[in-house]
Amino acid sequence: MLLVVWRSDYLTWLHSNCSSDCQYYDANGGTPGLQIRRVHIRTSDKDVIKSGLWLSGDSEVSTLLWQDPHLVSWKTDIAYRWQISHRPSVGSLQVRIYTAKEGLVVDSGTVFDISLLGGNLGVYNFYQSHATWSNIVVTCLKSSNTAILLNHTHLILGTLDQLNLTGNFVLGAWIKPGIQGSLQPILCTASSQICLYLDEELRLVGRYHYTNVTADLALEIGEWHLVALKVDLQENILTLFRDGGETTGKINGRVEDQTPPLLLGTNDDMNFSGEVSEVRVISRLLTTDLITVLTVPSMLRERRMGIVSLHLTFRDRSFQDSESNITVVSSDPSPTFTTPTITGYQHRIRENKPNSERHKRSVAKRARIHKPDQKSSSQKTFGQALRFKIKQKRKKLRLKEEL
């Protein structure tokens, strides 16, 4: 799961609030400020989980994705508005925190992580009593995915030499077939010596030189599939990738002619009919597994290192790659673009509703979740209980004024 944590100045807070764990957390306490963490709990040890969620750096149960460089802490008796925008389809997450008086207080910018494709939404407190969460709203954002419709339309991506496909490489894309019964090139050269295509039965086929590799299962019409072809000339292995499964074959020979262009949707003889999105031309093999290479949203670092030759997202309804010097040419000057929903590629966050009847009534009223004090009411004196009620009423009045 992804965890958004906002801490105050832990030294000041711990000395007045922590319990018997104070000595441990005082020495190993978390850094103040906003953090975004990826949590991967693989143990049932409560102490390991507790310390892993508290500590600032990477631990056995969590990995730090982003830390506020300004270390802005929260302050007591102030109402904060949290705004979290998460797009699992492209792996982007942004957190903004506002106050009525100061406006924007913290902004994480866009943080990329593709490990979470969906799940539940909730809030939690770590050793902080009297925290009130109110007016929790979950809405679905407009899809940011874009695909190009290839129906007797194709794109010229550049020559093999321009794309630096003279050695090892990977060709990949998301595709949605529209018909079957004929050969349908996806990414091919005009000579078809390098080609990723569908046969008459919608089975995926990969070709390099005169080596063919065919997937066992056919693709489905009207469904999105992640497909790729990997050429490893060091090991002489041709790998065909289809929705997580791999099929391999032995390469015999090399493609010597580097002048033919790489085409999307045709091989100058036949055409692909359907939708295509997220086209990637990777000119070097990475140590990362293939699924990560094909699904990571942003590859700016790899682009600057010359590893990625071309990445077509078709966002803003353009078939150009703004980060590449290669000019893509379309057979249709005004191609058709679509906004797809890709299973396994775009997910909606499901809202996690409280279970108790009291919480259900509260959620139905204003989606208000309140965490009571850690001490039970029977353990408090009458004076403590009265002061607590007065303080809570003041907080509610202040929240109404500021919100």
**Fraction of residues in β-strands:** 25-35%
- Helical content class: 10-25%
> Over all CA atoms, what is the radius of gyration?
27 Å
Residue-averaged pLDDT, rounded? 77
Summarize the structure.
The chain is α+β, with helices and mostly antiparallel strands.
What descriptive keywords fit this protein?
7-stranded antiparallel beta sheet, 8-stranded antiparallel beta sheet, alpha+beta, elongated, single chain, 403 residues
Write the layout of secondary structure elements.
Blueprint (H helix, E strand, L loop, with lengths): L1 E6 L2 H8 L4 H7 L4 E7 L6 H9 L7 E6 L13 E7 L4 E8 L3 E5 L3 E2 L6 E3 L10 E2 L13 E5 L3 E5 L9 E9 L6 E6 L4 E5 L4 E6 L2 E8 L6 E8 L4 E6 L2 E6 L10 E4 L8 E10 L7 H6 L4 H5 L3 E5 L16 E2 L5 E3 L10 E3 L5 H10 L2 E2 L11 H21 L1
Parallel strand pairs: 8-25
Antiparallel strand pairs: 1-2, 2-3, 4-5, 5-6, 5-7, 9-26, 10-21, 10-24, 11-20, 11-23, 12-17, 12-21, 13-14, 13-20, 14-15, 15-16, 17-18, 18-19, 21-22
